[in-house]
Amino acid sequence: MEFGFTAEDEAFRAEARAWLSEHVEPGRDRRDWERELGKAGWIGLGWSEAGYGNRVAGLTQQVVWAEEYARSGAAPRSGHIGENLLGPTLIAHGTEEQKGRFLPAVAAGDELWCQGYSEPGAGSDLAGVRTRGEREGSGGYRVTGQKIWTSLAHEADWCFVLARTEAGSVRHHGLTFLLVPMDQPGRIEVRPIRQMTGTSEFNEVFFDGAVARAEHVVGGEGGGWKVAMSLLGFERGVSTLAQQVGFAEELGRVVRAAVASGAVGDAVVRERLLRLWGELRVMRWNALRTLGSSGDAGAPSVAKLLWAGWHQRLGEVAMLVRGAGATVGPGDWSAAAPYELDVAQRQFLFSRADTIYGGSDQIQRTIIAERVLGLPREPKGVV
Q1: Of 68, 83, 111, 235, which one is the catalytic site residue?
Q2: CA 330 to CA 203: how far, in whole Å?
Q3: What is the mean pLDDT of the chain?
């Protein structure tokens, strides 16, 4: 039994492991998989309220589920944005009608969500959003603008959008949190962004007068900044620990490749692999230490700095172990060709974004400097 987990947690682990072993099938349709998870009550474990088709689990049991899911080899979740971001946000700020309308659909795996935050001119600086939400009497809002790096927008049924609803407002004033249906032909256009790996999880989303109903405002008109900041605080230690399970699997794969190729005979390679293993263990112990703690405002930023750099270094070692062949890509970089990349190449290329998405390293260091160390605030440009 690992430190921090009780006998009850381990019994829960056995249940989760058995269910996943029975139900995980390679190549299964992602939306169908969400519904399968929903039928068994595995969606919404971290919600503070039950009664929406979910079951509520304690913090350590949420960690157990996330770890076992990562170990099972199940497909990446397409419903995690609705479950881990929208769900807790509605419980904290939504009306009873909003919770009753949207949470059961998320818990059942029937409706998928995406996040409309970042824009071409407002990525890390979220307060600079320019997407407009123009009020139409009492009927709702017309949303016009562009969002970018919108994960899974091409699969989503709904998008929660941070929009500027007060004309002339600046920074965090005049923003509203809107729930917008994606099925609005001619009013919403989704354009996948092809990445270096050839995949397209991210998208540009263009809103051209898209309709958001008045009853789908969360936190009241002008209360968007408070809701948006609350949402960003929900996905913390549990997801970090689950992520580290995936990292351990990747590290193990690199070690096995080093042994198979003979690269492990190089003292430099051995040293780098050992260092990666040690750093990953330290990250896990730190995550367990801070799990559920709200007293350290800088903990999430420290964790992000640690794992982002670590994962990039792992990608570099994976390429080193792969050898000269790692530098050879597809002869034709057409739409299908990037899938010819091997695991090490995909790992290396994808990890290049780790220090940018989810708040760049520069942003994390600024948060630590200003909010934790109390250093003078960085001057902001004039809008």
Answers
A1: 235
A2: 24
A3: 86
Which residue, 269, 254, 278, 266, is CA-closest to 347? 254
The amino acid occupying position 338 is P
Strand ranges in the chain using DSSP code E only, listed in sequence order = 113-116, 132-135, 140-147, 158-164, 175-181, 188-192, 203-213, 217-218
Residue 305 sits at the vertex; the CA angle it makes with 118 and 127, to the nearest 5 degrees, is 25
Nearest to residue 302, comparing CAs of 365, 238, 374, 237? 365
Q: Which CATH superfamily is domain 113-222 in?
A: Butyryl-CoA Dehydrogenase, subunit A, domain 2 (2.40.110.10)
Domain boundaries, the chain: 7-107, 113-222, 237-372
Residue 4 banded pLDDT, cuts 50, 70, 90: low
Contact 127, 174 (CB under 8 A): no
Q: pLDDT tens digit string along 136-161? A: 877 799 999 999 989 899 999 999 99
What dotted CATH number matches 237-372? 1.20.140.10
Distance CA 329, CA 373 (A): 45
Contact present, 181 and 111 (Cβ < 8 Å): no
Are the C-beta atoms of 355 and 361 separated by less than 8 Å?
yes
Q: Which amino acid is at 372?
A: V
CATH code of the domain occupying 7-107: 1.10.540.10
DSSP character string of 162-203: EEE-STT--TTTTEEEEEEES--TTTEEEEE---TTS----E
Under DSSP, the state recorded for 124 is S
CB 299 within 8 A of CB 289: no
Bridge partner residues of 191 (DSSP): 204
The pTM of the full predicted model, rounded to 2 decimals, is 0.83
SS3 158: strand
Cβ(193)–Cβ(202) below 8 Å: yes
Task: Give me Rg for the CA atoms of the chain.
Answer: 22
Active site residue 235: yes
Distances in whole angstroms, Cα of residue 363 to Cα of each of 125, 200, 274, 309, 331: 9, 25, 29, 14, 38
Tokens of 167: 């004309």
Torsion of CA 203, 208, 213, 217, to 10 degrees: 60
Confidence class for position 379, pLDDT limits 50, 70, 90: confident
| Angle (CA) 96 65 252, round 5° | 140
